[in-house]
């Protein structure tokens, strides 16, 4: 459709032509030539207008439309650049600071509907500690340090019981952290001692994945927020080929989309394995059992805070900066004993019970980590059924509640 401006222009041209014919008959040929030229221009304008998309105005003056069409054609002919490969994204940290507690249970029915003590304790934990995260360990085992017969231990929950526990924890308001633990079925057996021979290491990783996979699938299907790849495998993490560890990360990531960690033991935080820089890991977990006393003596509360900062916090911060990844203290605990800061990894002690010493140790840890930008969360071992580490009904639970509700920070 022609615009009103174009119609008015034609009317003015017609009036001029009539005047020229009546006044100067000798210029008839010139007038006819002018009319022919105008007709050609009109045809060109109409054809150019038809090329524009419906309802879209021309991008320039009418006199430049032929040139504009040439420019658009040239732009269309420009080859599309080859896209660059998208890098593997670093998983997004979620949920804020993880205010956690560990509550293990050791049987095939653990965490399930028949584990009534565990199920009924979750509300009490929320009330007493204000914890928002619940770590649920699952135990795997093998017969000897160099064996490849890894399987689900008899003290581990069935997949069905694990799922029931996750659903109950979510119902109560917890976020869930699944932590696989590995033991050797020998006196003093521990994941750090696992040492498959070089020619059997691929088989070991394959068998470990076969045992772990059903729980990974259950975690993904039931919204478990965080999962550890493995825990405290001191020898294997540094001696097995990096490719095997990356393969295991890839296998887990092919199913699981939540936060993913690997939990190293405190004794190796100054020499982390190279593969911990893998971008598919969300955090680096640390089992933190560093002693602050060289003898079974009692320490005062302020001394604990200073020693914790000097001997533990600085090392954790250095690890976070080295790996460019924040730290989750995936396991930390202090005994209810007068020597709580001596050989802190041991669940037993001959020292008398001392609930205040345990509470002061909790306070020292939380004073240092709750405002540390390098630390993403902390999980205390544990609520109950963990020998002298238990805090159920103890002063340490009150310390947790003050810090986890923020009242301790506001009162500082």
Summarize the structure.
With 412 residues, the chain is an alpha/beta fold.
Give a description of the structure.
By secondary structure, this protein is of the alpha/beta class. It has one domain (98-411): Glycosidases (TIM Barrel, Alpha-Beta Barrel). The protein has twelve helices and nine strands. It has helices at 4-23, 28-51, 65-77, 116-129, 159-172, 201-221, 234-239, 242-253, 301-323, 355-369, 395-405, 407-411; strands at residues 98-102, 133-142, 151-152, 175-184, 226-231, 259-265, 284-288, 327-332, 375-381. It has an eight-stranded parallel beta barrel with strand order 1-2-4-5-6-7-8-9, surrounded by four helices. Strand 1, helix 4 (116-129) and strand 2 (133-142) form a beta-alpha-beta unit. Helix 4 packs parallel to helix 5 (159-172) and helix 9 (301-323) packs parallel to helix 10 (355-369). Residues 1-34 and 44-90 have low confidence and may be disordered.
